[in-house]
Amino acid sequence: MSTPQPIQTAPRRYQLFIDGQFVDAESGETFKSPNPATGETFAEVAEADKADVDKAVAAARKAMTGKWSKMSARDRGRLLYKLSQLIEQRAAELAELETSDNGKPIRESTYIDLPGVVENFEYFAGWATKIEGETIPVPGQMFNYTLREPVGVCGQIIPWNFPLLMAAWKLAPALAAGNTVVLKPAEQTPVTSLELAKLIQEAGFPEGVVNIIPGYGETAGAALASHPGIDKIAFTGSTEVGKLIAKAAAENLTKVSLELGGKAPNVIFADADLDQAVNGAMMGIFFNQGQVCCAGSRLFVEEKVKEEFLGRFKEKAEKIKVGDPMDKSTLMGPQVSEEQLNKIKSYVGVAREEGATIFAGGEQPKLEGALQNGYFFQPTIFSEVNNRMRVAQEEIFGPVSSVITFDNDDDLIRQANETMYGLSAGIWTRDITRAHRFARAVKAGVVWINTYNMFNAASPFGGYKQSGYGREMGKHALELYTQVKSVWVDLSGKPIGWFGQ
Ligand code: ADP
Fold it and tell me: Are residues 87 and 40 located together in one domain of the fold?
């Protein structure tokens, strides 16, 4: 039976979303977003640059003092909840659009991305009415309390690996806290953010509260990050660009939160349930074509079980169905772009030069029909890696596992922490003491024990070290989008006894 082939239709067309309206870019320019499974143009999209960023920031500033600022917390929450319901109603269609724009298998967009988007808007809808100040027990006849206020206009720059989900992680807490937003989706995947804009309009958010302006990083992204009219910039993407964002923000002392790269250790101890551990290793590195900042890309395997584990890992990796992402049985689709594909291929060369072994994969799979032009890559395992090699230190952002062996806990912890990154870590063992010791010792913002890639809107996510700062999701995300004001009131009614008498 042949696999269904994607049907190419005329490119979809999209405009920018500014001040509640869909508009062309000031320059009239557009850019093309390809379907990564075929390389054919999937959408043609208005291309924002500095002039559009200026317009969007002005709209967001105006909205910050308008109807939105006077709206009750309850009504803000209701709008967010309504948005979550509108997304849920259109989830199947949005999942298909996500798969066509990004290349991720439809089973992922359907069962992971879209439910996550709905969950985040729903979760933060509930927070709108629960953002509270405190009363502080100060001495004397004084009353001191805090107000927790929105930060203001938030610039948000998101990546292409979970396009709509990243939009939800950014928008939901910002809006729950009463901010306004200028969101720049990645140029590779602008479509679902602009579909979301339609639902934001339909839900009834006041004009200018959310502005969505796709464009390139060096133009629209850089103009947004350095804009003096924004109060906060939130970014998810590479550590390299994160540093540029932090520098640009420093110029205006704009508040910053960054969720950056990773090179996570995923650790297999000999006492683990090896079947589960093999599945965990696969989930860690092959999920979403390995395009995950918290991917378990350094696989540490205890020397004693190396042979058995690697044999099983390879066998399963080679069985992964790579192909048409619209086919429900496909487990891996194409990488997002030719540029990413080429980067991954170049690391196969690096692995060889460094003396690692290409233990599985390492090439583009042979596919038929329109898929021949897609950006597909085989699930790949490098063995005989040591932790100092480039393939163990640099983020490849593809389905490439670098396997390193270890023979005791101390040696493991030292190596696990020998990286500039610190986003996440995984451990597979039946020994709970060892698991919790590792969780304490590893320098990472998230640790998974006998599981991997678990997320929930209520649970904080973010990095140690050069994986960034700030925590998204959970109540911690509200810290990023609120600021505290301390208010003092004299209750004594007496004259001020200092210079006053
Ligand atoms: P990747 O390398 O995975 O493509 P990037 O960090 O380059 O990730 O991109 C993440 C997001 O950052 C995208 O929306 C991209 O357009 C944006 N971006 C890229 N370069 C810059 C820049 N110099 N300033 C601001 N945003 C940028």
Answer: yes
The torsion angles phi and psi of 306, rounded to 5 degrees, stand at -50, -55
Amino acid at site 273: D
Per DSSP bridges, beta strands 41-46 and 30-34 are antiparallel
Taking the CA atoms of residue 34, residue 35, residue 38 and residue 44 in that order, the dihedral angle to the nearest 10 degrees is -40
Q: Which domain holds residue 443?
A: 265-449
The CATH number covering residue 426 comes to: 3.40.309.10
Compute the distance between CA of residue 237 and CA of residue 434 in angstroms, rounded to an integer: 32
pTM above 0.70, yes or no: yes
- Number of Cβ within a 10 Å radius of residue 226: 21
Q: Classify 251 as helix, strand or coil.
A: helix
- Is the beta carbon of 280 within 6 A of some atom in ligand 1? no
Q: Kindly state if the Cβ of 325 falls inside 6 Å of ligand 1.
A: no
The continuous run of DSSP H or E covering 185 comes out as none
Distance of CA 244 from the midpoint of ligand 1 (Å) = 10
Tokens of 414: 């030292």
Asked whether 41 and 32 are in contact (CB, 8 A), the reply is yes
Question: Ligand 1 in contact with 220 (CB < 6 A)?
Answer: no
Written as one letter, the residue type at 8 is Q
The answer to whether residue 386 is domain-embedded is yes
- pLDDT tens column, 301-356: 999 999 999 999 999 999 999 999 999 999 999 999 999 999 999 999 999 999 99
- Domain identity same for 242 and 269: no
- Max distance between CA atoms of the chain, in angstroms, equals 95
Residue 371 CB partners (closer than 8 Å, separation 6+): 5, 6, 37, 38, 323, 324
Chain centroid to CA 306: how far? 32
Tokens 């990645």 map to which residue? 186
Domain identity same for 271 and 391: yes
Q: What is the DSSP letter of 289?
A: G
